[in-house]
Fold this protein.
Amino acid sequence: MVSEQLTAALTPVLGRIPSGVFILIARSDDGKTTGLLASFIQQASFDPPQVTVAVNKTRYLNGWLKDGSPVSLNQVQKGDNLLFRHFGKGFEPDANAFEGIECSPGLSGLPLLKNAMACMEGVISGQMEAGDHIVYLVSLTNAVANRDAAEFDPYVHIRKNGFSY
């Protein structure tokens, strides 16, 4: 447990660490596919190209993310309320998370979102517990830019509070 003194010191500072906004897409062992809004994503390595993705332990999606599992990461553009609102509400495991959302199949067969600035595909290649989240290492295998990279203007999430989304 974090002390009250440390919480008070970190609250206005920790949430100011900027992070991109992505839609993380994964598939269950029985073929269900879903997506969730994710902002704890960070590049972790140049060679091989890897990113980390932190998912709250309360999310059922953690049961779908195992070593070797494919994922797609779809980068949300600044001002895009469609993807942010649609995936921000969350979905039950049996719900069609992609209803009304334009997609194309990636190399892994997972959806790539056409309204995203860019999409990356990869496989889970490790994980570790980090407090109330699980951090996954994703080895990247493919990328698709849906817009000219010079025009990328990513949605950057800055929280007001370092202890909540």
